[in-house]
Amino acid sequence: MVALYVYERMPTDRGTDRRSYLKALAAGSVVTLAGCTNTGDGGGDGGDGGDGGDGGDGGDDSTPTDEPAPQIVAGTAPGFPPFEIKQDGELTGFDVELFEAIVEESEYEFGGWKEFEFDALIPSLRDDKIDAIAAAMTITDKRDNAIDFSDPYYSADQSVIVREGGDFSPSSLDDLSGHPIGAQKGTTGESVIQEQLIQENKLEESNYNAYDNYTLAVQDLENGNIDAIVLDQPVGATFADQRAVVVSFVYETGERYGFGVREGDSDRQQAINQGLQAVRDNGTYEELRNEWFGSN
Ligand code: GLN
């Protein structure tokens, strides 16, 4: 595809240009340029020496640069079932399908997914690596200071999961005292451990294990390296269905998930809110909810 594009732009009237072109192509620089829409006039470089037609080329190439189709590139953190998961190498899940359906309803073009660890999502959004976050992200005051959120699209509490068939079955946060426990870095589950247990001197800091993602935490729980995990209830319930773990109790937090956009990006925020309303109105939201959580 890229090579074809380069070939089409290759000046054929002058041998030297053609050679330097092929050399650049071999070096990869043309491919890089051609792959980047706003430097598509790499093809014109060879022709700058004069023929009038090149001006026209530049005009053609600059059209998409001057008015790029407005895009939304979305970021997520897979390993959080059923919201974002990898299935046979493909990214899918409730958030993934919902967000794509929402963008479909808007005037934005969906620019694809980029994957990060959960705690890298907000910095990546702020650094323009992505335009939106769809990652079961709870709307919190602290996050709201760094980015903006869409209207809420899902509600959840926290839960505590333990090994299936084990003899540890806590029924309150206090019961976790003295046990090695885990959560995913930068999550509200981690905040519960820090604010309700460590800061209250109910858990030693050394008993808290912070993981890059919850899938790793569940492995450690199954292996007996930790005794419990604090995580969002719908995800705890899904791990309980799929792995050798059970939900021991639910800790009510009344969290609400929102899609993140850059601070001040009210255009995308509005587009997402309108798209969310549209998929609620046309039944898609309900369909996806049934597909990923059952009809309850
Ligand atoms: N809802 C939790 C949070 O926002 C966990 C999100 C996640 O791990 N993807 O912190």
Q: Which range best describes the helical content: under 10%, 10-25%, 25-40%, 40-55%, 55-70% or over 70%?
A: 40-55%
Strand/helix succession: HHHHHEEEHEHEHEEEHEHEHEEHH
Mean pLDDT: 84
Stretches where pLDDT is under 50 for at least 5 consecutive residues are 1-60
Give the strand order, joined by hyphens, for the main sheet: 4-1-5-12-6
Polypeptide structure, described:
The two termini are 47 Å apart. α9 links the parallel β8 (181-184) and β9 (208-211). The chain contains 13 helices and twelve strands. The strands form three sheets. A five-stranded mixed sheet has the order 4-1-5-12-6. A five-stranded mixed sheet has the order 9-8-10-7-11. It is 42% helix and 21% strand. α6 (94-104) packs across α12 (266-281). The chain is of the alpha/beta class and 296 residues long. The chain is globular and about 60 Å long. The structure holds glutamine. Glutamine binds next to loops.
Features:
single chain; 296 residues; alpha/beta; 5-stranded mixed sheet; 13 helices; 12 strands; 21% strand; globular; binds glutamine
Provide the fold topology:
Elements: H1 2-9, H2 15-27, H3 29-34, H4 42-45, H5 53-66, E1 71-76, E2 85-87, E3 90-92, H6 94-104, E4 109-115, H7 121-126, E5 132-133, H8 141-146, E6 148-149, E7 154-163, E8 181-184, H9 188-198, E9 208-211, H10 214-222, E10 228-232, H11 233-242, E11 245-257, E12 260-261, H12 266-281, H13 284-293
Parallel strand pairs: 1-4, 1-5, 8-9, 8-10
Antiparallel strand pairs: 2-3, 5-12, 6-12, 7-10, 7-11
Helix pairs in contact: 6-12, 6-13
Glutamine binds next to loops.
